[in-house]
Amino acid sequence: MITTLKTKYGLFMPGKIIPELSINGKPAPYPVLNERAVRAGAGIMFVMGSIAFALALLSQDFRALKIVVVIFFIDFFTKVILGPKFSIISHISNLIVRKQKPEFVGAIQKRFAWSIGLTMASLMIVLLYVFEVRGPINLAVCLMCLTFMWLETSFGICIGCKIYYGLIRLKLIKEPEIAPACPGGACPINKSSN
User: Fold this and answer.
1) How many CB atoms lie within 10 A of CB 15?
2) Which residues neighbour 65 within 8 Å (Cβ) at sequence distance 6 or greater?
3) Are 56 and 65 contacting, i.e. CB atoms less than 8 angstroms apart?
4) Structure pTM?
5) Which is nearest to 35 in space by CA: 83, 101, 129?
């Protein structure tokens, strides 16, 4: 199973496979991430985004927002396409939590959540750089992204993961063969094989 997954993902795996890993007493033969590092990364991005948002909102100076949007785009693109092991923010967040006991969760739903972040960052790049829009629409997209990051870093609530499982329930995306672990066992899907 592990060899099959490594072949499936190759170099660009959305997490890492840990042989013989068990989460909540159940085998976890799928790519996983350290939830603590994911939350730390969301916190780093939340702080950067909040500063840029405040500058744009209070002074109508969008220069910091333009820089942060590019950083977010690069980070989300890297995590979604190449995997978090190529993300600078992921490396920094892993350093921050390195002395804490890891809490492993499935990587697939986090990759989906990052793809939502990539979509928002792409929209912001188009608005800011292509159409040179500066105003309420930018701030609304930015505020939505900041809200997602705040919920992740503060409470461990991954809105992108909830959307992922909602799409599975609606049968718009395929349910994984083995339901990946979520923080605190909060995943709404359960498979008897899991």
Assistant:
1) 23
2) 52, 53, 55, 56, 124, 128, 138, 142
3) yes
4) 0.89
5) 101
pLDDT tens-digit map of 125-146: 999 999 999 989 999 999 999 9
Query: Using an 8 Å Cβ cutoff, are 106 and 180 in contact?
Result: yes
Structure tokens at 160: 């992108």
- AA letter at 148: F
Rounded to whole angstroms, the Cα distance separating 79 from 82 reads 6
Tokens of 39: 């939350």
Pairing of strands 26-27, 32-34: unpaired
Tell the residue number behind the tokens 């928002």, with chain if given: 120
Separation between Cα atoms, residue 150 and residue 48, nearest integer Å = 12
Q: Quick one: tokens of 54?
A: 């405040």
Cα distance between the two ends of the chain: 14
pLDDT computed for residue 192 by the predictor: 40
**Spatial separation of the C-alpha atoms in residues 4 and 157, rounded to whole Å:** 31
Report d(CA 172, CA 74) in Å as an integer: 28
